[in-house]
């Protein structure tokens, strides 16, 4: 029996990566195998992103590159956010694509390819981990989003939030642990809203975390994408008291000015935001805070921007990512009558934030010099003047700082105590002291 070969290109965020892992797991369950290259594949798969303009362009270019090399006998499948967002337009513009899937639905790819009924038996398919490192995996706990932030197209693409059951998530976590995962990163559009769409009897993020802690021995469990409105003391206390929960909070605040927050439809104020951020610092000693901000939103004045700058300087986030407002079709922001911010002015504001954050990050990393910290080794540093690359619990994979190991031997996927010798704004340098 000939096993069809598939070659996949994955674009976009970690949530999209998990979707790609499920798509390929379904195909592998019916006999597909991975092709070493696009040229040797029977099927080509592009899992696209459609969040902002730059991501859309990248996805379209990826599909077109596959169209150019596609042989007559090969079949091209396009899935993901871009194909879901433009499901009417894209098939007309790219007739060379054989199958359009949209965002992930269990069993849909098997149904479209004529290999099974939708949702039939997919719950028994083992979880696939396609990340760069076998000791780390992302686990998606919900689909969609109930937030209708004015700048965001995600609810239009992925619909309202649907939280997965605690039982199914725990089962997936156990499968990943059996595969050797040492760090599990829980993701959703809004992890702190987990279960809230089901009302007061629904599950909560705290209950989910307790279940994963009880049913697995995974050393590091991290959660991303908190929303300020749905964080309670029970969740903070669990993080403070449970050593296997990384003391790391990724909470995109977007802005600090009340007028801009209201225009963004963020449903909180600067006062409540400050109270929450400082409560996190108080309740979780040593917590690492990461955030994302959006500048240049319609109506943002220099004074509004200065309020955001002041909050950043007061809170001193260890990690911060910034973006310039990008008008996205179908979002409420396009209906605003407020004065647009010129792009050059918005970019100057982002540059100013980045300059301030560079100083804050430098101060944060320099505080580690001379200390011993627990580090998870990710990989061997090939062709470098250091030996290994790792991370502390205060650094999320793909987005935060790294630890360069210049002395000592280590095994990727294992934990070590590392003495920090030097620091730069976004990296630490250290030597192995001993295994954990």
UniProtKB/TrEMBL annotation:
Coiled-coil residue spans: none
Sites where the protein binds [4Fe-4S] cluster 1: 13, 49, 81
Cofactor(s) recorded in Swiss-Prot or TrEMBL: [4Fe-4S] cluster
Keywords associated with the record: 4Fe-4S, Cytoplasm, Iron, Iron-sulfur, Metal-binding, Ribonucleoprotein, Ribosomal protein, S-adenosyl-L-methionine, Transferase
GO cellular component, one term: ribosome
Subcellular locations according to the entry: Cytoplasm
Limits of the MTTase N-terminal domain: 4-118
Cofactor note: Binds 2 [4Fe-4S] clusters. One cluster is coordinated with 3 cysteines and an exchangeable S-adenosyl-L-methionine.
Domain spans labelled TRAM: 366-434
Amino-acid positions noted as binding [4Fe-4S] cluster 2 in the UniProt annotation, renumbered to this chain: 145, 149, 152
Annotated EC: 2.8.4.4
Reactions catalysed: L-aspartate(89)-[ribosomal protein uS12]-hydrogen + (sulfur carrier)-SH + AH2 + 2 S-adenosyl-L-methionine = 3-methylsulfanyl-L-aspartate(89)-[ribosomal protein uS12]-hydrogen + (sulfur carrier)-H + 5'-deoxyadenosine + L-methionine + A + S-adenosyl-L-homocysteine + 2 H(+)
Alphabetical list of SMART domains matching this protein: Elp3 (SM00729)
Occurrences of domain Radical SAM core (ranges): 131-363
Assigned protein family: Belongs to the methylthiotransferase family. RimO subfamily.
NCBIfam families reported for this sequence: 30S ribosomal protein S12 methylthiotransferase RimO, MiaB/RimO family radical SAM methylthiotransferase
HAMAP family: MTTase_RimO
Role summary: Catalyzes the methylthiolation of an aspartic acid residue of ribosomal protein uS12.
The protein's name: Ribosomal protein uS12 methylthiotransferase RimO
Source organism of this protein record: Hallerella porci
């Amino acid at each position: 029996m000939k096993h069809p070969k598939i070659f996949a290109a994955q674009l976009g965020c970690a949530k999209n990566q998990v979707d790609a892992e499920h798509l390929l797991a379904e195909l592998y369950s019916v006999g597909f195998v991975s092709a070493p290259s696009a040229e040797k594949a029977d099927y080509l798969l592009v899992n696209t992103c459609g969040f902002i303009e730059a991501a859309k362009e990248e996805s379209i270019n990826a599909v077109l590159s596959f169209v150019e090399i596609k042989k007559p006998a090969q079949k091209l499948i396009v899935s993901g956010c871009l194909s879901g967002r433009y499901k009417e337009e894209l098939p007309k513009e790219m007739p060379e694509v054989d199958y359009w899937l949209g965002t992930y639905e269990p069993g849909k790819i098997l149904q479209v390819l004529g290999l099974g009924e939708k949702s039939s038996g997919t719950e028994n398919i083992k979880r696939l981990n396609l990340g760069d490192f076998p000791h780390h995996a992302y686990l998606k706990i919900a689909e969609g989003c109930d937030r209708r932030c004015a700048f965001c197209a995600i609810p239009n693409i992925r619909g309202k939030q649907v939280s997965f059951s605690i039982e199914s998530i725990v089962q997936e976590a156990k499968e990943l642990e059996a595969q050797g995962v040492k760090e599990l990163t829980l993701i959703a559009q809004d992890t702190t809203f987990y279960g809230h769409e089901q009302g007061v009897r629904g599950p909560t993020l705290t209950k989910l975390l307790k279940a994963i802690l009880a049913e697995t021995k995974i050393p590091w469990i991290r959660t991303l994408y908190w929303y300020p409105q749905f964080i309670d003391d029970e969740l903070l206390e669990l993080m403070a008291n449970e050593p296997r929960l990384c003391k790391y909070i990724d909470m995109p605040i977007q802005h600090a000015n009340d007028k801009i927050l209201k225009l963004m439809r963020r449903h909180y104020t600067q006062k409540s935001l400050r109270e929450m951020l400082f409560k996190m610092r108080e309740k979780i000693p040593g917590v690492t805070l990461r955030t994302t901000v959006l500048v240049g939103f319609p109506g943002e004045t220099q004074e509004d921007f200065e309020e955001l700058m002041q909050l950043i300087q007061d809170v001193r986030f260890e990690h911060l990512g910034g973006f310039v407002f990008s008008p996205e079709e179908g979002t409420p922001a396009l209906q605003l009558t407020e004065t647009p911010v010129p792009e050059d002015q918005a970019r100057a504001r982002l540059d100013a934030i980045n300059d301030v954050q560079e100083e804050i990050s430098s101060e944060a990393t320099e505080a580690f010099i001379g200390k011993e910290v627990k580090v998870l080794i990710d990989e061997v540093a090939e062709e470098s003047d250091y030996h290994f690359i790792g991370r502390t619990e205060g650094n999320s994979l793909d987005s935060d700082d790294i630890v360069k190991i210049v002395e000592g031997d280590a095994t990727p996927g294992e934990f070590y105590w590392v003495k920090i010798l030097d620091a730069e704004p976004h990296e630490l340098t250290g030597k192995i002291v001993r295994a954990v």
